[in-house]
């Protein structure tokens, strides 16, 4: 098995997400998301897929909704040489100045073209976030 540095890969992915989102680089941002992605934990949606994510991002870019994004990476673990799982706190500031915090579980996979992409994301509930060591810093 190839030795990978899961922490460096997760950090590079998170940084690229922040940079592409803040620059409104739709193509660049969506290149970080697998076409097979599944997102769990959103209100009113059992599972969100790639097309839903793309449409939501297009709307957010058109309205200028997101002004900044950052991540605090918590626990990072290589599950294999092509799969990384980590928990993180996502901090998003919208165009009204409101700050949104989302505790997340993110799974990255190295796809056939060699690019690490999110294949799963789950917004953690309060109990899961506490178990994962993600706490509200307010």
The largest β sheet comes out as: 5 strands, mixed
* Helix percent band: 25-40%
Give, in order, the helices and strands: HHEHEEEEH
| H/I helix tally | 4
Any idea of the CATH topology? Nuclear Transport Factor 2, Chain: A
As for the number of domains, it is: 1
Unreliable residue runs: none
Mean pLDDT: 92
What is the β-strand count?
5
Give the strand content: 35-45%
| Secondary-structure class | alpha+beta
Descriptive notes:
This protein has a five-stranded mixed sheet with strand order 1-5-4-3-2, with helices on one face. The chain has helices spanning 6-22, 26-30, 50-63, 126-131, and strands at 33-40, 66-80, 83-94, 99-110, 116-123. The mean pLDDT is 92. It has four helices and five strands; from the N terminus they run H-H-E-H-E-E-E-E-H. The chain has 138 residues and is an alpha+beta fold.
Nutshell version of this structure?
This protein is of the alpha+beta class and 138 residues long. It is built from 4 helices and 5 strands; from the N terminus they run H-H-E-H-E-E-E-E-H. The protein has helices spanning 6-22, 26-30, 50-63, 126-131; strands spanning 33-40, 66-80, 83-94, 99-110, 116-123.
List keywords for this structure.
138 residues; alpha+beta; 5-stranded mixed sheet; globular
List strands and helices in order, with pairings.
Blueprint lengths: L5 H17 L3 H5 L2 E8 L9 H14 L2 E15 L2 E12 L4 E12 L5 E8 L2 H6 L7
Parallel strand pairs: 1-5
Antiparallel strand pairs: 2-3, 3-4, 4-5
């Amino acid at each position: 098995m190839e030795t990978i540095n899961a922490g460096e890969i997760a950090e590079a992915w998170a940084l690229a997400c922040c940079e592409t989102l803040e620059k409104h680089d739709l193509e660049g941002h969506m290149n970080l998301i697998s076409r097979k992605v599944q997102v769990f934990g959103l209100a009113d949606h059992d599972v969100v897929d790639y097309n839903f994510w793309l449409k939501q991002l297009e709307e957010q870019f058109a309205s200028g909704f997101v002004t900044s994004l950052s991540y605090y990476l918590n626990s990072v673990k290589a599950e294999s040489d092509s799969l990384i799982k980590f928990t993180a706190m996502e901090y998003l500031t919208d165009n009204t100045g409101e700050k949104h915090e989302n505790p997340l579980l993110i799974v990255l996979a190295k796809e056939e073209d060699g690019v690490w992409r999110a294949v799963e994301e789950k917004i953690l509930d309060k109990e899961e976030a506490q178990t994962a060591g993600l706490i509200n810093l307010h």
